[in-house]
Amino acid sequence: MRRAASGNDYRRLAKARLPHFLFEYIDGGSYDEVTLRRNVADLQAVALRQRVLRDVSQIDLGARLFGQDWAMPVGLGPIGLAGMNARRGEVQAARAAARAHVPFALSTVSACSLDEVAAGTDRPFWFQLYVARDRGFIAELIAKAKAARCGALLLTVDMPVAGSRYRDLRSGLAGAPGWAGGLRRFCQTLARPRWAWDVGVRGRPHALGNIAPLLGPNSGLEDFFGWIRGNFDATISWEDLDWLRGRWDGPLIVKGILDPEDAREAAERGVDGIIVSNHGGRQLDGVLSTARALPPIAEAVGDRLTVLADGGVRSGLDVVRMMALGAKGVLLGRAWAYALAGGGQAGVAHLLKLIEAEMRVAMALTGCLRVEDIGPQAIAEIGEARAGG
Fold it and tell me: pTM (2 decimals)?
């Protein structure tokens, strides 16, 4: 595998190896992608406070999240269809996370099922849940997550309806049903023969994992996007947390919080954690970046629950920035999807090593010996957004 010198290099590898429609699905956001750009720009605008003569010979990245010790406060967040980026991709990513001893979160709309990922790794992983109208099916999915010994349930709440992602329309992934869409994707696949053979042929079956029972046999991408548009439950409310608690007794984490009032509500409802997130800029375009939303949310909930964050994180330096803004842990999104596409399991493992090395340097130069030491005192300045237009 060609090694990437930095996490950003994997984006270039992914673009070169994936069919155009799959790369655009990973890389794109909603509408004009303002929030997508803000996530990166606002996080990079956070200037850290360099300290010297602090004896930083012993840096400890260890973190405890939701009752379990991890090698560092970094995990692989849930990404839909990630298993199409490499052959049986979610299994490869879960194995890389397990060997690095960091959390891995499997998406409801993964290519590989809960059972397949559980069979493919020897460590428990987290499961991300979308609530569909068919509550019986959701109850069965939660039962499968319990049977797979999943360590936490991540309830995504910022997608009662799907955002409009224009790149997917232009690439032919969505909005071009039947033979026309299939032909466009087929031609793009032919342009990537390595992917076509390794994933398209050797990676079968492509059954869309956990929701395959709802789609039926011989389903394709049109069926998947049809299910997304027609089956998410727009009636979901805070009261549904009680319904979930009746079926799940492990850590419950609410993903998609952007407002302090919602964060306080989550704390009052007794959830174990929240993930400050705007869905990677893939839902409501124009909202705050995670870097901007995080500090007031962390202040609003204090120690009543565990605050995680995602959005715009591309390096270990970004992880330290996000933790200085108030997060206790950080989930990678596009960064690990690019690495999976660019190098499979080895690519994800290499990315995690890069993240670890970059965190060690950033912690040493800010005088933080432990992850618990990273806080607002590590920030020199929070700059203004540079990419809003």
Answer: 0.94
